[in-house]
Q: What sequence folds into this?
């Protein structure tokens, strides 16, 4: 088994199609199909179910995909580390991001790393849901991650975090905009909601549903989007209200108003995670310190801007 076989398999699994994978890999479909069959023979298990249109993973294929990603990540990491050791300087930082963190954390983090004089070449990867990012961290595909845990218990890889309280977002001309201070979620019980697609961000979708259940109603999920910036755009257009974290105030358009939610026992946090054996040297410690300071600076900016 060679690394190329794993790359071929991951491409087919990611795209759900041998023909699309062949196009991406710049090779013809029959040789790629032959390579996948050869891999299955060597593994001794069927990894894919061939469908009239595309393929899907078997249970064995799903398990093999996790390991294949980890092996490829380790191979890439080994090459990068060897080059860094030869040059005498470590510089590559692979960062996993929730889409909102791309907007609120990444720009300030890049400026802070540059301002601190750290030689860093950042490779940024948006990954959702949080479980996908944690798996990438444990597979050594990324060095640091910024996630929104779906439970009150932080993952063991957590090294820093900030409170990012739940808020209700609505259009500036909405009747709720006249209310000052925090709002009870039940005040929006009869409003249409703009929500995350459950398939795009299952963690936040489930958290939103749980908040509404706690408030005693089932939300009218009439609209859906894949990123907070899109959710806010729909809210600003008057399509409905949405539950968003407070840090969204930094990317909200002028026609959107946000109020903190009161009376809920559920907490929202944005946390930074690091692998157990990653970023443990002095360079890594400096990067983690800079990222921690940036998280704290983000929290301060949000508190200053939120009413």
A:
């Amino acid at each position: 088994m060679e690394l190329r076989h794993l790359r071929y398999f991951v491409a087919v699994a990611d795209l759900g199609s041998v023909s699309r994978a062949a196009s991406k890999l710049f090779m013809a479909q029959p040789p790629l199909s032959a390579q996948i069959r050869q891999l299955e023979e060597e593994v001794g298990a069927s990894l894919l179910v061939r469908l009239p249109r595309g393929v899907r993973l078997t249970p064995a294929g799903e398990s093999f995909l996790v390991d294949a990603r980890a092996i490829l990540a380790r191979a890439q990491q080994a090459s990068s580390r060897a080059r860094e050791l030869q040059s005498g300087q470590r510089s590559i930082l692979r960062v996993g991001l929730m889409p909102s963190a791309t907007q609120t954390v990444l720009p300030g983090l890049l400026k802070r790393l540059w301002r601190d004089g750290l030689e860093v070449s950042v490779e940024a990867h948006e990954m959702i849901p949080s479980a996908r990012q944690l798996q990438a961290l444990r597979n050594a595909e990324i060095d640091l991650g910024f996630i929104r845990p779906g439970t009150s218990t932080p993952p063991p890889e957590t090294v820093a975090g900030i409170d990012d309280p739940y808020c209700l977002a609505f259009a500036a001309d909405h009747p709720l905009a006249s209310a000052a201070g925090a709002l009870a979620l039940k005040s929006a019980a009869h409003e249409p909601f703009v929500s995350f697609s459950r398939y795009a961000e299952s963690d936040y979708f489930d958290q939103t549903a749980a908040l509404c259940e706690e408030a005693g109603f089932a939300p009218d999920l009439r609209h859906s989007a894949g990123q907070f910036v899109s959710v806010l755009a729909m809210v600003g257009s008057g399509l409905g209200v949405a539950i968003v974290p407070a840090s969204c105030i930094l990317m909200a358009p002028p026609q959107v108003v946000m109020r903190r939610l009161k009376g809920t026992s559920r907490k929202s946090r944005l946390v930074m995670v690091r692998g157990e054996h990653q970023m443990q040297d002095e360079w890594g410690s400096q990067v983690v310190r800079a990222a921690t300071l940036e998280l704290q600076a983000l929290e301060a900016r949000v508190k200053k801007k939120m009413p």
In short: Residues 59-87 form the longest helix (29 residues). The chain has ten helices and 13 strands. The radius of gyration is 22 Å.
